[in-house]
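In the current project phase, the collection of sequences with tokenised folds has grown. A representative record is quoted in full directly below:
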Amino acid sequence: MSLGHRVSYARSVAARRCRNTRSSSDGGTCQVSGQRGAVELENVTKRFGTMVAVDSVSLSVQPGEFLSLLGPSGCGKTTTLRMLAGFEQPDAGHIRISGQYVQGVPPYKRDVNTVFQHYALFPHMTVSENVAYGLRQQGVAKSEIATRVAEALDMVQMSKLADRKPRQMSGGQQQRVAVARALVNRPSVLLLDEPLGALDRKLREEMQIELKLLQSRLGITFIFVTHDQEEAMSMSNRIAIMLDGHIEQLGDPETVYEHPASAFVAGFIGRNNFWQGVATEHGIRADDGTVFVASRPEEDVPNDEPALSAVRPECINLSAERPTSDVNSTKGTVAGVSHFGDVLQYVVTSGDRDILVLTPRTNGSRFHSGDEVYCSWSADEVYLFSARQADIVMADPLSEDADE
């Protein structure tokens, strides 16, 4: 299990009791003004031939906000970022940055800068020279260049390595230089296109913290593109979860985790066990016979219509004894146990499906492969959706096309 799943697990253990109050799935409405750093997309569409990459997206970003565009490959998040940067132009709709329309404005004339996954540092230049390059191109005075480069390197704690060249630095240090080079121009908006993707896991975790602290300190608007839900959950004020060129849900990390607006969001943010079936008056009857009762369903699905139910792994209780109720429970056999420090992960085979269960290491009950167990959960922890996204959430992940 990845650190992202463990982070989601720890967060949900603390927050799942708050599900008794359903909140809006849009995360609140941002009022866009002419303030520096405000960003607005209004019905923005981008096509490549017959393919619609971004489909009538509307989004408002507050000055100083850390907003992540999150989604699987091909969802439109990078194309959206490239339109903000000026590398692509929308086919329809409007984009405003700091209150100014930017359609047709080239990248170098926009008050934004971009940090890419591949940092594209000049190998023959020192750190200072790399950071100063953009200022020299703008004709900034040498004395001001020196001051601003020193300030930018100090922001990212790279002043001591000012005379080194990129090949003499680690990936994390190069990433800091790329950020300094973007910040030295003092943009109102910093765009980050999966800037941590080339780093190993430990360094990614460290840089997530550093970037968030830097953004908080500077107060610059950050728009961050990632396919990694852990990054988005740990760093963002709000997350725009994208699918097939549109925003599926916009909200703060707790809202999108605890109150997903669709089955796709429920499966993409953290993990969920999904069952297919038909809707009943109080929940669904799954195809395998499991009966679900949902106290607060996400969607109102008419009786006898195809439906999906879902229960997060950390919300399932394991017991050797049969539950007193026949609803919200199923019998299975432990097929595997994995240890992840503070968390135990069980794979329970029930019929022709596997159920994922997460329990704290301190849980008194331990089970082993081959043990017969009962999985049970409360009605408060059951998500209920229509079956419109069944093909997405029930798909075998190994069969998915991983290409961008």
About this structure: The first strand starts at residue 39 and ends at 48. Residues 3-258 form a domain with the Rossmann fold fold (CATH 3.40.50.300).
